[in-house]
UniProtKB/TrEMBL annotation:
This is Uncharacterized protein. Residues 1-21, 181-204 are annotated as: Disordered. It comes from Streptomyces swartbergensis. Residues 185-194 have a biased composition (Basic and acidic residues).
Amino acid sequence: MYTHQQMKAAKKANQLTEQAQREQAQPYVVADIRERVPGSQLLCFFIENSGPTMARDVQLTIDPPLRSTRGDEATAILNNAVTRKIPVLPPKRQLMYLMDVGHQLFSSDLPHRYTVVVNCSGPFGPVEPLTYTIDLDVLKHSLLNRESLEWSAHVLAEETKKARKAQEKQADAMDRLFRTAANELEARRQRNNEPPEINPPADA
């Protein structure tokens, strides 16, 4: 009885180990809506494979369909692009689609929550579907209103620091140039003021 339990536990441990190894070798495709770059008002829809292996047949389902203040045509193009099946998405590859302008979207009555389902295949076949919610209100309160200002202030401070260092470097270079010129002028003046050398007459 004890041996049977040991064998059963060992088998379960092996299964868990194999499952963990398979999961570590699977692609991990996620979708997100965020700023194009920190501090930007442009919101983009990103699809990224953050896993270690190739993702194949990537297919997204988004409910409700994405909405944008950029107009019906731009919205239709966006939805067609992000829900189109992607044959291959290499590891660390990121796809970016322009979605909206932050202050325009958040001042509208368009949806702020989307449920995303990601389906894809990896080296061991189909990957378990990933379902999660994108809540744009989190982005609205934590990034666009706060970090954009902080990032702008940070960039301004960095640029000011660079400009100050450049001015200091230029001032040091000019100071060295003036000192060199002054030393050369002083040396030339001293040479010009030296009395002529008189050689004593030779003995008759």
